Amino acid sequence: MSPNRQNSAVHRSLPELQALPRPLYGRVESLPNRALTFRHSHPWVQLSYAIAGVLEVQTENARYVAPPQRAVWVPAGLVHQVSSSSRTEMRSLYIDCSVTGWAADSCRVLAVSPLLRELISAFSELPAEYDEAGEGGRLAQVLLDQLRVAREVDLVLPMPHDSRLQQLCLSLQDNPEQHATLADWSQLLGVSERTLSRLFVQDTGLTFRAWRQRLRLLGALTPLEQGARVTDVALACGYDSISAFIAAFRQHFGATPGEFFR
C-alpha cells in the first residue's frame, strides 16, 4: 500500500467567495486529519503552502507535491483537487490575475525561501480588507515580488493519458512496493514491451523506471515528514535496502531524508 494512502481523507469545505476582497487574499487553516477537497477551479490564482504537513495538488495531467518549504502555484481556471496529510498547517493565497501578468499559465511547485516564508506568515495575520495604501498594501507588494522570483522545483509526477498506462500507473500508486517489470505489464496489457516503453516516454516524459522511482520518492515525503522510520518508509516504497532508498532520495532531492526535513 502507498505509504501516504493509509487513512481515508475527510473532505474540507472551500471558502464561498464571489470576488476577492483585495487583489491578494490570505487564508489560514489547521487540518488535524488528512483532508481532501472536491475537484474545483477558481477565477483567480491559488498558492497552496503548508508550514507543517505535506500538500498535494492533483490535476488531469500531473500530481504536484509540496512538503514544508515548498508551495504549489495553481493558475486561474485550472480544475484541481487539493489533499493534505494529517496535522497540516496550511496557508493559502488567492491572487487576482490583474497582478500576476508575469506568471506562467501552468501549475508548478515553488521553493519557499526563508524571506518568503516570513512574508506569508506576516500576511496571514492581516485582516481580509487591509489598507491597500498602507502597511498591508506594501507587505502584499513585497510578497508578490518574492513570488515572482521564487524558484521552481521538480516535485511533479506527470500522469499519462493512454488508458493502458493509466491502468498501470493506478496500480503502482495503490501499491508502489510491487516489483512487476515492464515486461510483466506488457503481457498483462497485451502490448509489446517496446511499445509500452515508447508510450511511457511519449506520454509522461519519463521512462517507466524513472516514473516509478519518482512515484515512490514523492510518496515517501508524507510519512517521513510525520516522523516515520526511514527503514519502514523504504520498505513500504518497495526498496530492498535503506542504503538504496537513501541514495535514490539524495539523487532526486539533493539531500538525505534527515537533511531534507531538517
Would you kindly provide a written description of the structure presented here, covering whatever features stand out?
This protein has 262 residues and is an alpha+beta fold. The protein has two domains: 10-153, Jelly Rolls (Sandwich), CATH 2.60.120; 159-261, Homeodomain-like (Arc Repressor Mutant, subunit A), CATH 1.10.10. The chain has nine helices and twelve strands. A six-stranded mixed beta sheet has the order 1-3-8-5-6-12, covered by helices on one side. Strands 2-9-4-7-10-11 form a six-stranded antiparallel beta sheet, with helices on one face. It is globular.
N-to-C order of helices and strands: EEEEEEEEEEHHEEHHHHHHH
What is the alpha-carbon Rg in Å?
19 Å
What is the total number of structural domains? 2
- Unreliably modeled segments: none
What is the distance, rounded to the nearest whole angstrom, between the alpha carbons of the first and last residues? 27 Å
What amount of the residues lies in strands?
15-25%
> In percent, how helical is the residue content?
25-40%
Helix/strand-derived category reads alpha+beta
- What is the name of the CATH topology of the largest domain? Jelly Rolls
Major sheet: 6 strands, mixed
CATH class of the largest domain: Mainly Beta
Number of strands: 12
User: So, CATH architecture of the largest domain?
Assistant: Sandwich
User: Number of DSSP helices?
Assistant: 9
Mean pLDDT: 92
For the biggest β-sheet, the strand order reads 1-3-8-5-6-12
**Shape, per Cα inertia axes:** globular
How would you name the CATH homologous superfamily of the largest domain?
Answer: Regulatory protein AraC
GO molecular function: DNA-binding transcription factor activity; sequence-specific DNA binding
Pfam families: AraC_binding (PF02311), HTH_18 (PF12833)
Protein name: AraC family transcriptional regulator
GO biological process, one term: positive regulation of metabolic process
